[in-house]
Amino acid sequence: MPVHVDYLVLGLGGMGSSALYHLARRGMKVLGVEQFGIAHDRGSSHGETRIIRKAYFEHPDYIPLLQRAYSLWDELEQESEKSLFNRCGLVVAGPPEGAVIKGVHLAEERHGVKVESLSAADVLQRCPGFQIPEGFEVTFEPEAGFLHVEECVQAHMDCALAHGAQIVLHEPIESLIISETEIEVQTANQHWVADGVIVTAGAWSSDCLKELQLPLEVVRKVLFWNPVLSPIYDLEQGRGGFFFDMPYGEFYGFPSLDGKTVKLAEHTGGAKVPDPTNVDRELSESDSASVARFIGEVMPELAPSPERHAVCMYTRTPDGHFMIDQHPRNQRLVYGAGFSGHGFKFASVMGEILADLVSDGKTSHPIDFLRADRFQDESA
Ligand SMILES: Cc1cc2nc3c(=O)[nH]c(=O)nc-3n(C[C@H](O)[C@H](O)[C@H](O)COP(=O)(O)OP(=O)(O)OC[C@H]3O[C@@H](n4cnc5c(N)ncnc54)[C@H](O)[C@@H]3O)c2cc1C
């Protein structure tokens, strides 16, 4: 006989840990199930840091969600008594006519996001150690910064458990049977029936929700930690994060946290991953070629060869925007997927939204632009 649970969260990574927390803090009875451990390095929420910013060049409709995400990260810091968010600022550089710089200015105009335009003299002062390509415009967002990614997941989990959430770890969910009134969930050893389920399975979302045929593509992404040749990029020297829109791709990184290395990566590109459980974690020479080129052109105080690396996965939608929705046959099956390599900063508010949808069937957050039917409209 299956065991009854009110709510079940499938996948306790960036989004699932937050959804679990939001349900538990509302006093709901919730069970979280995860195939690996907490804050593990096999999905999409590991590698020390994630950029957070409000000058959202991807789409200005994300900005109201970001306002709430910022408040919720602050609340989580207070509740967990952990330092999660470093507001070190972010330099964004690119051609003035490019989508990135234009998008930064749109965020400024539409939503009053604070952005400074840097002159050549400002650049020398604010981000020494960077050679800005000819003709680039440079902006600085003082309220941007980075999140400590594993600590954020752990903090959501710790606080969820403190509010009474239950969890089962190291057990992959093998089947979801969705009827109009309830949802059956099974692992190799356990069988539950839930009134509501949130699926936050990251790179495994298409596998978990096969019948929905979600238009998702998983790609392999490599993060690099390259040795610094001087302290010029140190967080302690007041340096922030950076994002460059280069002609051959987009590159981003963080100030040096350890005084020895800078973490950086290419945001664009990535090879398709056929099986997220068995993604190739070895480094090949071609992996670091574009980042080495970027370093050679822009960051002369950084060694071109990495000291270490990590492999992570982006789960992309066709338009690069998230997919947040309810199952067409049972609105109590809610999913958040396709975070397309820019979702972590939203994890705090995504948990709130997913908790709203599964418990109330609706949310007051403006998420219509993230609904799945936008893809059906395209093919109609
Ligand atoms: C290299 C890299 C850099 C990034 N940089 C940024 C950044 O700077 N800023 C930013 O905002 N975002 C960034 N992102 C994106 C962001 O990290 C992701 O969008 C976000 O972490 C995705 O969270 P998720 O919960 O969807 O996936 P995950 O955190 O991977 O969680 C999914 C979970 O579901 C579990 N699961 C899956 N299937 C099952 C099953 N059948 N049974 C049980 N458990 C299951 C998995 O084990 C996993 O724990 C980056 C991503 C990567 C990979």
Automatic annotation (TrEMBL):
One of its GO terms (molecular function) is flavin adenine dinucleotide binding. It comes from the Bacteria. Residues 6-357 form the FAD dependent oxidoreductase domain. It is an enzyme of class 1 (oxidoreductase). NCBIfam families: PRK11259.1 (NF008425). Its EC number is 1.5.3.1. This is Monomeric sarcosine oxidase. Gene3D superfamilies: D-Amino Acid Oxidase, subunit A, domain 2 (3.30.9.10), FAD/NAD(P)-binding domain (3.50.50.60). Keywords: FAD, Flavoprotein, Oxidoreductase. Its cofactor is FAD. SUPFAM superfamilies: FAD-linked reductases, C-terminal domain (SSF54373), FAD/NAD(P)-binding domain (SSF51905). The keyword Flavoprotein applies. The gene is soxA. It holds the Pfam family DAO.
